[in-house]
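so my prof wants the structure for this chain in the tokens format not the other one, which i didnt know existed until like an hour ago. anyway here's the sequence
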Amino acid sequence: MKTLFGDIEEIPFEKTLKIKKEKKLLSRNQKNFNQLTGRIRTLEKEIPERRTKLFRLHEEYNKKIQPLDNENALLRLEIASSLSENATKNKFSKNKMEDIGIVICDLCDMAFQYIEPDEKQKKLYDQWSEMSYDDDIKEQTDSYKDLLADLLNDELGMDIDPDDIGESDEDFARLQQQIRDQFEREMGKAQKSNSENRKKTKKQIANEEMEKAKAELRNKTIRSIYIALVKILHPDSETDPVKKLEKEEEMKKVTAAYESNDLSVLLKLEMQWLHRENDQLEALPDEKLGIFNEVLREQVNRLEAEMRSIYNNPAFAGVAKFSHLRDNVAMFRIQEKIKEIKKIRDSLKDISEFLRISKNKKEMNYFINDYLKKMEERDRYSSFSLFNNFFR
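here's what i got, hopefully its the right format
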């Protein structure tokens, strides 16, 4: 795993890395150390489990639900096509033709959420929509870019031309980095401004003194850790040829970290040794534990960010809501979803067959009016759900 410490792997906590004393005798840093290592142990166990579960649910979703969604999309396009044919064969009023166009465009919009339209399907949409499919997609994309550019300008003062916002994954990653860099600059300016404009309180002065003390401790710690690790890992102290080679490799990492003044990596290497020699933990000075805790806290933050990224992965959008459920409950919900989609499929099949054989203008009017009524109910429900989610 690539980490903030370079290519050195995260500390695995297969066994308990814990300071073993009477709880009431533990210092604050010792308690924090135990809590952080416990949290890391939990996250390291849960992350692969959650990822495996999401992949399993995603596979089930793709195998059983996605084909049904695609089938329903094609059925909606069949209904839209039948409506279009019947509308051209029968004489409808201008208002009714507008209603038919609304229904056809809605059916196409719902279908295009699941399948990419071919030229024939685009042509059907273009025939009844005020704007062509390609122009509609372009307008949505341009609107999104304008909105994003305005947001970045308002929040971060970034002057970005919407036309410069690319659409590839590389373009998006580049923009993300620009946003992060600008955010850090703005935060730095704000902190500097606050520091210059406000008189420091006693607490702030004390914190600054503490930070200076920490910096001095870090400098001393770099050398002390290096000396300690050299004594422990020096290959000349090892007679076993295999272990001697292992120590030579570890010493290369120790020397490189010391020469680059990299405390984080030295701490990492020392903690890896402590993980093998768990009984040494109780002898660690409290100041050293405080520094260890900073490294462990960073590791917890990275692991928690990794956990969040699993659920935010667009590939799992369809199943993320099932991931926190027990396996049997999640599978039950997916089966319920399948039943619901199949019910919709059967209804769409009936409508498609009805429109294929029906030439009755009155029945066509009834279907259009009923569809528009359901559209209105659906839009009202969507607005209500959005309102509830916003204030939840």
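also thought this was worth mentioning. Residues 10-130+289-392 form one domain.
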